C-alpha cells in the first residue's frame, strides 16, 4: 500500500461503526511494525481522545509483536549476543531504545576497566581490579531499596542509574569481563544469579563472583552451604556456566515477578507470553 493509502486507512479509526473499526484494526496489525510511525503521526494530529486511545493500543500490539519476533529470532541463533538479548528485553518498556546506544555505553565502561586492567596477574587480582572499577569508581551497586522494580531488569536503566538486581549487574560485569578476555560466565542459582571464573588454564581453579555483593569472591563450598540452607538437592547447573539464552530467560522471569509485585498483572501476562513463545515454562526467581 502507498503512504497515502496507509494514512487513509488510519484515518478510519475515527469512524463510529464498530465493525469498520474492527476491520481497520485487524488490517493495521496485519501490516506490522512499519505502521507504527504512521500511527504515531496520527496520534499527534488527532484531538479525539477515543481515537488516540485506539491508536495507543494498536501501537502497543505492534510493538509487542515486534519484540516477540525479535526474541524468537534471537533464540534461534547459534550463538546469540547477550547484550542484544538484554536490549530486546528492555525494548518492552522502552521501544525507542537504540542498540547502538547500549553498545556505546558499555564500551565506555570497558575502556575505564581496560585502563587499569593487567592481563598477566592472578585471576583473583583481575577480579579485584574489575570490582574496583565497576563498584568503587563507577558506583554500580545493588538496588536494595526497590529490589522488585522492573527497571532493575532493563539494561539501559541500570547503565543510567548504576543500580540493578543480581542478574542485570552480573550481565554488565560479564560483558565487560569478556571484552577483557576474562573467562567469566553466568551461573543459575535458585533465588540468586552469580558468575563463575572458569579458566582452561589448569593452574587456576574455578571460583565464583557475586556481582550483587560488590564482586565478592567465593568457592564451591560456599555454594554447597547455600544449597544446604535452601534445603534443596544440588544440581550441576548450580555450579557450571549457563548460556546466553538462560540469562535472558531469567531476566524475563524476573520481570514477571516484578510486574506482579507492583500489581501490573497485564504486563506480567505479556511477559509470560514472550516466555512461552520461546518454549520456556520454568521459574528460578530473582
Question: How would you describe this protein?
Answer:
The protein is an alpha+beta fold. The protein is built from twelve helices and six strands. It has helices at residues 3-11, 18-31, 36-45, 49-76, 82-90, 99-116, 123-137, 155-161, 166-179, 220-230, 244-261, 265-277, and strands at residues 141-142, 163-164, 184-189, 192-197, 207-210, 216-218. The strands form two sheets. Strands 3-4-5-6 form a four-stranded antiparallel β-sheet. The radius of gyration is 22 Å and the shape is elongated. The termini are far apart.
Strand order of the largest sheet: 3-4-5-6
SSE order, one letter for each helix or strand: HHHHHHHEHEHEEEEHHH
Structural class, judged by helices and strands? alpha+beta
Question: DSSP strand (E) fraction?
Answer: 5-15%
Poorly predicted runs are: none
Helix content class: 55-70%
How far from one another are the termini? 46 Å
Per the principal axes of the C-alpha atoms, what is the gross shape?
elongated
Number of helical elements: 12
Determine Rg (CA atoms, Å). 22 Å
Mean pLDDT: 92
Gist of the model:
This protein is α+β, with helices and mostly antiparallel strands.
Write the SSE topology.
Elements: H1 3-11, H2 18-31, H3 36-45, H4 49-76, H5 82-90, H6 99-116, H7 123-137, E1 141-142, H8 155-161, E2 163-164, H9 166-179, E3 184-189, E4 192-197, E5 207-210, E6 216-218, H10 220-230, H11 244-261, H12 265-277
Parallel strand pairs: 1-2
Antiparallel strand pairs: 3-4, 4-5, 5-6
Amino acid at each position: 500500500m502507498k503512504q497515502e493509502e496507509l494514512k487513509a486507512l488510519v484515518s478510519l479509526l475515527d469512524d463510529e461503526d464498530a465493525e469498520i473499526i474492527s476491520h481497520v484494526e485487524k488490517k493495521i496489525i496485519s501490516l506490522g511494525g512499519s505502521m507504527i510511525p504512521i500511527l504515531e503521526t496520527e496520534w499527534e494530529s488527532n484531538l479525539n481522545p477515543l481515537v488516540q486511545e485506539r491508536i495507543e493500543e494498536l501501537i502497543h500490539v505492534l510493538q509487542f509483536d515486534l519484540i516477540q519476533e525479535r526474541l524468537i529470532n534471537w533464540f534461534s541463533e547459534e550463538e546469540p549476543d547477550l547484550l542484544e538479548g538484554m536490549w530486546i528485553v528492555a525494548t518492552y518498556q522502552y521501544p525507542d531504545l537504540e542498540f547502538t546506544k547500549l553498545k556505546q555505553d558499555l564500551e565506555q565502561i570497558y575502556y575505564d576497566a581496560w585502563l587499569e586492567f593487567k592481563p598477566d596477574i592472578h585471576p583473583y587480582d583481575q577480579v579485584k581490579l574489575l570490582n574496583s572499577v565497576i563498584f568503587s569508581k563507577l558506583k554500580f551497586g545493588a538496588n536494595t531499596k526497590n529490589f522488585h522494580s522492573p527497571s532493575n531488569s532493563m539494561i539501559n536503566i541500570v547503565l543510567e542509574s548504576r543500580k540493578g538486581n543480581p542478574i542485570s549487574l552480573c550481565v554488565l560485569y560479564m560483558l565487560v569481563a569478556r571484552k577483557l578476555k576474562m573467562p567469566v560466565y553466568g551461573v543459575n542459582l535458585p533465588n540468586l544469579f552469580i558468575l563463575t571464573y572458569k579458566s582452561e588454564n589448569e593452574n587456576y581453579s574455578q571460583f565464583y563472583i557475586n556481582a550483587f555483593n560488590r564482586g565478592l569472591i567465593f568457592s564451591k563450598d560456599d555454594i554447597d552451604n547455600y544449597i544446604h540452607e535452601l534445603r534443596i538437592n544440588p544440581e550441576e547447573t548450580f555450579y557450571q556456566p549457563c548460556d546466553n539464552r538462560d540469562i535472558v530467560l531469567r531476566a524475563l522471569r524476573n520481570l514477571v515477578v516484578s510486574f506482579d509485585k507492583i500489581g501490573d498483572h497485564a504486563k506480567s501476562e505479556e511477559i509470560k507470553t514472550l516466555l512461552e513463545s520461546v518454549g520456556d515454562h520454568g521459574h528460578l526467581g530473582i
